[in-house]
Amino acid sequence: MNSIMDLLNDKTIIVIAHNLDSIKNFDRIIALKNGEIIGQGTFYDLLENNLYFKDLYYSNVKSE
Fold first, then answer.
1. Which pLDDT belongs to residue 18?
2. pLDDT in tens, 12-50
3. Whole-prediction pTM value?
4. Which residues form the signal peptide (predicted)?
5. Residue 12: what are its φ and ψ, rounded to 5°?
């Protein structure tokens, strides 16, 4: 994944991810629920301040 990220340095990319661990290092994340934006920020900002994102993350971690 690092080599892909090196190629994309200084570029805007759109990623749709179900595995939230794969987006931990992204500069900005926009969280959606039913097509509506429910939060945005860094991974850790969302994890700390957005209950829906936090629930998604921890339910994903438990199922692994």
1. 86
2. 888 899 889 989 989 999 999 999 999 999 999 999 999
3. 0.77
4. none
5. -90, 130
Give the list of residues 6+ apart from residue 10 with CB closer than 8 angstroms, or none: none
Tokens standing for residue 39: 């939060």
The residues with which 33 forms a beta bridge, in sequence order, are 36
Pair 14, 30: CB distance under 8 Å: no
The residues near 38 (Cβ < 8 Å, ≥ 6 apart) are 31, 32, 50, 52, 53
- Between 41 and 9, name the one with better pLDDT: 41
Helix (H) or strand (E) holding 31: strand 29-33
Tokens of 52: 């829906």
Phi, psi of 53 (to 5 degrees): -60, -45
3-state secondary structure of 46: helix
Q: Where are the domains of the chain?
A: 15-63
